[in-house]
Design a protein that fits this description.
It is a single chain. The chain has twelve helices and 16 strands. Helix content is 28%, strand content 21%. It is α/β, with parallel strands linked by helices. It is globular, with a radius of gyration of 22 Å. The chain has helices at residues 99-104, 134-137, 163-188, 198-201, 204-208, 220-232, 249-254, 277-288, 305-313, 319-326, 328-334, 381-392, and strands at 4-6, 12-13, 16-21, 24-30, 51-54, 56-61, 108-113, 120-128, 138-148, 212-217, 237-241, 258-261, 292-294, 351-354, 366-371, 374-375. Strand 12, helix 8 and strand 13 (292-294) form a beta-alpha-beta unit. It has a single domain (56-340), classed as Metal-dependent hydrolases (TIM Barrel). The strands form three sheets. An eight-stranded mixed beta sheet has the order 6-7-8-9-10-11-12-13, sandwiched between helices. The chain has a six-stranded mixed beta sheet with strand order 2-1-5-14-15-16, with no helix packed on it.
Length: 396
């Protein structure tokens, strides 16, 4: 009751009443226009002066697959080999990760967990950040297949291979990838093949439209090449990274290609680019009418996702556009927009209450959070250590 509700679809209710039952939102309204029967609810929270948001959604994450980056035995995020569409990140997801509580403490409640490595890395899944095991945490299994597009630039350096050799390798890598896709499409055209090929069989969803193709690439040539292949094979394409996507917004829009931007808290990829270009990227895509979201391409840094989107507000986005980028936009890209991404009646009650602006590190303070209507514990190891040493040195 009484909080400012950012609905995730661009709308704001200044003095809201939000109700849910059995994990689903049953009431989203202006508290001034309705009469609430408080006795009908088992718990009522007066959130006057606070902010309510749909749970933030982080795409392209390794959360739950990587615990400590520098220790190989604590990473389970890639397999050997180049073509691994049959690899499923969902079964490697570790719900006991100590990082997960630190991420959800900042309002990130859903994650797209993505395998890495090789040319075809495998299949990602959308996980909710609460659950005893990976089965409990699975929100949408195997939502798409991830491809690391072969690089299409020539390195000019005394130590580099001759340019013609590099160009031949580029062409060969792309040809090999397209051949794999053509063979997989031919295989999937047969509903009952005599011999089962696990790699090709894993790609059925791409060709029947139930899964998306996530292509990781940055430069114009790579993006255009990926768009061309997806168009020829009638695939639903999402570009991940997309550092040059601002240069070809017309191509992306004409082909209905969404973009998961890479880490915008970074320097531009070229020395002569505007130093603030990464900060402006969300605004550029927003004005061009491209469906996009932002990602942080990490595990533990996922907790800073809201702050990264908040930087976009200082470089052209409105406050609600930035919130929408992390909620409804991300849900639409991942194909979960019917149940998540906004505060609307009938959708899952996955939301959080912050005492301040959730996009501003100076004021953000998540006090209460719910995933599927269940209130979650916001304690984490970092808070415990903070309190431990505050007490040790008599600060409180």
């Amino acid at each position: 009751m009484n909080a400012t509700a950012h609905l995730g679809n661009g709308r704001v209710i200044e003095n809201s009443a939000i109700g849910f039952e059995n994990g689903k939102l049953t009431l989203v309204a202006d508290a001034k226009t309705i009469r609430i029967n408080r006795s009908a609810y088992s718990k009522v929270i007066d959130a006057g002066g606070k902010q309510i948001y749909p749970g933030f959604i982080d795409c392209n994450s390794s959360l739950g697959l990587t615990e400590i980056d520098m220790i190989r035995s604590m990473s389970d995020n890639y397999e050997v080999g180049e073509m691994n569409p049959n690899v499923r990140s969902v079964i490697a997801y570790n719900t006991d990760s100590k990082i997960i509580p630190t991420v959800r403490s900042n309002g990130v409640l859903l994650e797209q967990v993505v395998p890495q490595g090789g040319i075809i890395s495998g299949q990602s899944s959308v996980m909710q950040l609460d659950g005893w095991n990976w089965e409990d945490a699975t929100y949408k299994a195997d939502d798409g297949i991830h491809v690391n597009w072969p690089r299409m630039y020539v390195v000019k350096s005394p130590r580099a291979e001759p340019e013609d050799v590099q160009r031949q390798k580029i062409q060969r890598n792309i040809s090999d990838l397209e051949l794999f896709f053509r063979e997989a499409k031919a295989y999937c055209a047969n509903s009952a093949p005599q011999e089962k090929n696990l790699k090709f069989d894993a790609m059925r969803g791409l060709f029947d439209g139930s899964k998306k193709l996530y292509v990781h690439c940055d430069y114009v040539k790579e993006i255009v090449s990926a768009v061309d292949m997806a168009k020829r094979m009638a695939l639903k394409l999402v570009i991940v990274g997309g550092a040059d996507s601002y240069l070809i917004t017309d191509v992306l829009k004409a082909n209905s290609v969404a973009v998961i931007l890479g880490r915008t808290h970074s320097l531009p990829s070229r020395e002569d680019d505007d130093v603030a270009l990464p900060y402006k990227m969300p605004s550029i895509l927003q004005k061009a009418g491209i469906l996009y979201t932002v990602s942080i391409e990490s595990s533990w840094q996922s907790r800073n996702l809201g702050f990264m989107a908040g930087t976009g507000v200082g470089f052209g986005l409105t406050q609600e556009e930035a919130v929408m980028a992390l909620t409804m936009n991300a849900a639409t890209i991942l194909g979960i927009d019917q149940t998540a991404g906004s505060l609307e009646v009938g959708k899952d009650a996955t939301l959080f209450i912050s005492s301040g602006d959730a996009l501003d590190m100076r004021t953000q303070n998540v006090e209460t959070a719910f995933i599927g209507g269940k209130e979650i514990n916001l304690d984490n190891v970092q808070k415990q250590l903070y309190n431990k040493y505050q007490t040790k040195y008599g600060i409180k």
